[in-house]
Automatic annotation (TrEMBL):
GO cellular component, as recorded: chromosome; nucleoid
Protein family according to the UniProt entry: Belongs to the ParB family.
Localization in the cell: Cytoplasm, Nucleoid
Biased composition (Basic and acidic residues): 27-44
Gene3D superfamilies, alphabetized: 1.10.10.2830, 3.90.1530.30
GO annotation (BP), single: chromosome segregation
Name of the protein this chain belongs to: ParB/RepB/Spo0J family partition protein
Any single Pfam family the record assigns to this protein: ParB_N
Listed CDD domains: SPO0J_N (cd16393)
Keywords: Chromosome partition, DNA-binding
Region (Disordered): 1-44
The keyword DNA-binding is annotated on this UniProt entry: yes
Length: 323
């Protein structure tokens, strides 16, 4: 994997696979049984990473390996995963996973995609290199690896930054330093977490860009924010057009609130009950948009082509039963 410039300390330093770690002197130390754990401590720029040097590749039962729950990457392209699986069937796993030993299993530090593809290929064992890191170091390594590979979508990346800040009391400047990004990049990324869940999903599935998403942040009402995002997507508005549209909404909102009538609570409960029943039937989020003249519309939300196909087939089958 070609290492991208601009990532400062980089993944190789964190994983201990830099040129320096491969020098004859390092190998001699690794193979010397008299070397103490203290001598195995490697000093990296502004930080000390403690690692148990077990560079010898070994094979482990794939069922004893589990993914890291704090792994920033949550989505894996199924088609690309299948292609990697087919390659593994022919050539095997060419690059070992980096794992750490837990009580009765091994946790993946780097290589979850290879692990998933290997399981898909039916492998019983998989090559690994065992290392020892703190939880914070594992999170940093996973984040940097995915950034270098450009595997994270914008929401996953923002959530990873937020985890480093909230779980390990890091400041934005410290996070920026660790991943070799500017502080403004981290700040803009974190702002995406102000979006409602539905709009986050649209960003994750690349339905709208991060520029569009940031333009929607000033809309605090989740329902209105999602409705606006849907209009942006349907009408293919540019970022500037989105910013102008959001501005017009925010300017008109105070006037609307003045003439807005108190909603009928009984009807709200009624609509909510219908939404929940339809959601349980279709397995998708349902929204009933009622107007003041007993008219309205029912919206069915989906976030992938597979989900749309599933919902469509279900509606077709219901229609056949009624006929």
């Amino acid at each position: 994997m070609a290492q991208k410039k601009g990532l400062g300390r980089g993944l190789n330093d964190l994983l201990g696979t830099s040129d320096a770690s491969r020098s004859p002197r390092s190998k001699k130390t690794d193979n010397d049984p008299s070397s103490s754990p203290e001598k195995e401590v490697k000093t990296v720029t502004k930080e000390v990473i403690k690692e148990v040097v077990k560079e010898v590749e070994q094979k482990i039962n794939i069922n004893l390996i589990e993914p890291n729950k704090s792994q920033p990457r949550k989505q894996f392209d199924e088609e690309a995963l299948q292609e990697l699986s087919d390659s593994i069937k022919k050539y095997g796993v060419l690059e070992p996973l980096i794992v750490t030993k837990k009580s009765d299993y091994y946790e993946i530090i780097a290589g979850e995609r290879r692990w998933r593809a290997a399981r898909l290929a039916g492998l019983k064992e998989i090559p690994v290199v065992i290392r020892e890191y703190t939880d914070k170091e594992i999170m940093e390594i996973s984040l940097i690896e995915n950034i270098q590979r450009e595997d994270l979508n914008p929401i996953e990346e923002a959530q990873a930054y937020e985890a480093l800040i909230s779980q390990y009391n890091l400041k934005q400047e410290e996070v920026a330093e660790r991943v070799s990004k500017s502080r403004s990049t981290i700040t803009n990324s974190l702002r995406l977490l102000k979006l409602c869940e539905d709009v986050r999903q649209m960003v994750m599935y690349n339905m709208i860009s991060t520029g569009h998403a940031r333009a929607l942040i000033p809309i605090e009402d989740p329902k209105l924010q999602y409705e606006t995002a849907a209009i942006v997507y349907d009408q293919k508005l540019s970022v500037r057009e989105t910013e102008a549209y959001v501005k017009s909404i925010l300017q008109a909102k105070p006037e609307e609130e003045k003439v807005k009538k108190e909603p009928d609570k009984d009807l709200s409960v009624f609509y909510s009950d219908i939404e929940n029943k339809l959601k349980s039937i279709l397995g998708a989020k349902i929204a009933i948009k009622a107007s003041n003249n007993n008219k309205g519309k029912i919206e069915i939300n989906y976030y992938s082509q597979d989900e749309l196909d599933r919902i469509t087939e279900m509606l077709y089958s219901i229609n056949k039963e009624l006929m």
